[in-house]
Design a protein that fits this description.
Layout (H helix, E strand, L loop, with lengths): L2 H9 L6 E3 L2 E9 L4 E6 L7 E4 L3 E3 L1
Antiparallel strand pairs: 1-2, 1-5, 2-3, 3-4
Length: 59
Amino acid sequence: MNKQRAAEIAASPVMAHVTYEGVPIYIQHVDEDNETARIYPLDEPENEQEVPLNNLEEH
């Protein structure tokens, strides 16, 4: 996923269907300089992770 689209999704009040390694996730924050995103699985909000943007997939 490109950083522009990831930032749009993170800022939007509308929930987008995005996955990381096949798991539905929520994007909390996008670090455009490092091209990473702070995410968590929808069913595990306590499991935050920093992942590369190119590992995120929008459906």
